[in-house]
Amino acid sequence: QVHLVESGGGLVQSGGSLRLSCAASGTISSIKSMGWYRQAPGKQRELAAIINSAGSTNYQDSVKGRFTISMDNAKKTVTLQMNSLQPEDTAVYLCYALGGSSAWVTAYWGQGTQVTVSP
After folding, report:
1. Closest C-alpha among 22, 60, 23, 45 to residue 91
2. I need a labelling partner for 44 at 20 to 30 A (CA). Which of 15, 62, 95, 115 fits?
3. Cα separations (Å) of 69 from 21, 33, 41, 102, 110?
């Protein structure tokens, strides 16, 4: 069994900060990338930020300059530092991990954690 355990969600005032963390437990193949998706009510799930095992990152345009993603390969943990939060960032944030080998890849998802930003 592989589990992604998330923490750090909550309620914050506009302009505030939160830090989301996600740790992978159980047997998992080599991690290719980890990241955070988010889904707001009535909207499609979108990629907020992602990082691969080499440290390369990619961000949703709307969060660039405000969010920072990092990963500890040894601990299989990903962290999303969210600064200057705005009400538009309100969503359920879901941790994502992609592991695999030359023969196969497997995607894993966390249960999601609520982030609410008040005006």
Report:
1. 45
2. 15
3. 10, 11, 24, 26, 16
Alpha helices in 2-83 (DSSP H): none
Q: Which residue has the higher pLDDT, 29 or 87?
A: 87
pLDDT, averaged across the chain: 94
**Contact at 8 Å (CB) between 74 and 65?**
no
Predicted confidence (pLDDT) at residue 115 exceeds the cutoff of 80: yes
Cα separation, 84 vs 56, in Å, equals 23
Q: What is the pLDDT of residues 26-82, one digit of tens each?
A: 877 788 999 999 999 999 999 999 999 999 999 999 999 999 999 998 888 999 999
Residue 89 tokens read as: 């960032």
Name 19's Cβ contacts closer than 8 Å, sequence gap at least 6. 8, 79, 80, 81, 82
What's the token pair of residue 46? 């979108």
Kindly state the tokens that stand for 10. 């909550």
- Please give the structure tokens belonging to residue 44: 């499609």
